[in-house]
Write a structure and sequence with these properties.
Blueprint (H helix, E strand, L loop, with lengths): L1 E5 L7 H14 L5 E7 L6 H9 L6 H22 L2 E6 L14 E4 L28 E6 L8 H11 L4 E4 L4 H8 L5 E3 L3 H4 L2 H7 L9 E5 L5 H14 L2 E6 L10 E4 L5 H8 L2 E4 L2 H9 L4 E3 L7 H9 L22 H35 L1
Helix pairs in contact: 2-3
């Protein structure tokens, strides 16, 4: 059986790449051939990506261009080695008019594939708009990134949502959103794909530990002077050295020893071997919990519900720093025995979902063969 996935695999973000890899590897447990449809949002590569960072100011070119060149190398190398991507490239919605139907089942992948704010509007292919009517269609831990969407967004995307055989979402808030705003009932929540894979899987894939001393890993997506000051005070209170995971070259000027645009799987190793992870990132928090490294979470200003809902799921909402003066979080330990128990139970939901899909696809193929 062949499975095809469309997701945000071209976005140069560590969590995005790792969720794509985890999606692929999890689906391979149920399907013989798993491939990504190579749709590239125009602001995620080449000139479009450069324009996103420049924001009309060409003086920024010397600052941002080295990062984009290195991103192409690091992310491109990972995709080439680890992701099975179909050879046909789709750059616009219109390109899908010539889509070659090659799979037995289609998935819209995880990450924020349905976040119209992040995606600058509705992207019909992310809702499998191009898939023939008679092919099974599923959403695998897809995310809106929000607890409510506008009525205009519902009106524009409902025609696509209604075509799904079954939908699983990454955040609990996505369930009432689909039921109440879309009137769609075949939905429940499952784990982000990175969490569906146990820590043993990730440790086998990740490179060995390089930093020998105890350290606090900083993984900060939103620039904030308050965040940096909090990190400095955390260093003073713990006596541990700060290491900053820099996703861009210009972040090297910030506090902490710089780890500049490492290979993708270094993300896993650095989190696994840290003593504390200080972050505003969903995937950094998810990996911290999965690898049993205590996180301190600073909620971002936008789309924070995905982070708070996950912490609540694993009964660790107390690892959110209430503000930049909250250092008592150090005295609020994580019960990792309980976290592991919850994640193991939740992984079964993912397996049950994928087994259901696999059984449905087999039955569909069998019925077609009889016709």
């Amino acid at each position: 059986m062949k499975a095809a996935v469309i997701t945000l695999h071209t976005v140069c973000n560590y969590g995005t790449q790792l969720q794509a890899y985890a999606t692929q590897e999890k689906l391979k447990e149920y399907f013989d051939d798993v491939r990504f449809i190579d749709y590239r949002r125009n602001d995620t590569y080449g000139i479009g990506l450069l324009k996103t960072f420049l924001k009309g100011n060409p003086l920024k070119i010397p600052v941002i261009l080295p990062t984009l060149i290195w991103w192409k190398h690091v992310f491109g190398k990972f995709q080439k080695k680890y992701l099975n991507i179909d050879e046909t490239v789709y750059l616009t919605n219109d390109d899908f008019a010539k889509f070659n139907d090659f799979a037995d089942v289609y998935f819209s992948g995880s990450d924020q594939v349905w976040n119209a704010g992040w995606n600058h509007g509705i992207i019909p292919p992310m809702y499998l708009s191009f898939v023939p009517e008679d092919k099974p269609k599923y959403a695998y831990a897809s995310s809106f990134g929000r607890s409510r969407v506008s009525e205009e967004e519902v009106a524009e995307s409902k025609q696509y949502i209604d075509r799904y055989d079954f939908i699983t979402v990454r955040e609990e808030s996505g369930v009432p959103l689909l039921k109440e705003q879309y009137g769609y009932e075949n939905v429940y929540r499952i784990l982000d794909p990175t969490l569906s894979m146990p820590p043993e899987f990730w440790r086998k894939a990740a490179p060995p530990r390089k930093i020998k001393e105890d350290y606090i890993l900083i993984y900060n997506l939103q620039r904030s002077r308050e965040f940096d000051c909090y990190a400095e005070e955390l260093q003073k209170r713990t006596g541990m050295k700060l290491y900053r995971f820099c996703t861009r070259f210009d972040q090297m000027i910030k506090n902490g020893k710089s780890l500049v645009i490492p290979d993708i799987l270094e993300f896993v190793s650095l989190i696994d071997n840290a003593s504390i992870v200080l972050t505003d990132s969903f995937h950094a928090t998810a990996f911290s919990m999965n690898m049993n490294t205590p996180p301190i979470c600073i909620y971002p200003s936008d789309y924070s519900c995905r982070l708070s809902e996950f912490l609540n799921l694993v009964e660790s909402g107390h690892r959110h720093a209430n503000d930049f003066n909250d250092f008592d979080v150090l005295n609020r330990p994580v019960n990792f025995e309980r976290v592991n128990e919850i994640l193991n139970k939740e992984r079964k939901k993912t397996d049950d979902f994928l087994q259901m899909v696999s059984d449905h696809v087999r039955e569909t193929m069998k019925n077609k063969a009889k016709m």
